[in-house]
Amino acid sequence: MSHATLDDRGRLTLPKELRERYGERYHVVDLHDGIKLIPIDEDPLDALRDEFADVDETVDELRQGAREAALTDAGR
């Protein structure tokens, strides 16, 4: 685990090894018990393609599955 400290202007500097591993841009998410930094890929479309590379269903099939799951959860 690494530690980081805010400077007098409120800036946070991440250790070099973290910047090299995760990049230079992050989403800052405000949680009920702290914050979370989520790295932003240099090319977000490539990141999405990688994330869903193993999905064999079409968009329509995924949408229908989500619709059916929502109806089931709603008790219909």
From TrEMBL:
<dbReference type="InterPro" id="IPR037914">
    <property type="entry name" value="SpoVT-AbrB_sf"/>
</dbReference>
<dbReference type="GO" id="GO:0003677">
    <property type="term" value="F:DNA binding"/>
</dbReference>
<protein>
    <recommendedName>
        <fullName>SpoVT-AbrB domain-containing protein</fullName>
    </recommendedName>
</protein>
<dbReference type="InterPro" id="IPR007159">
    <property type="entry name" value="SpoVT-AbrB_dom"/>
</dbReference>
<feature type="domain" description="SpoVT-AbrB">
    <location>
        <begin position="4"/>
        <end position="45"/>
    </location>
</feature>
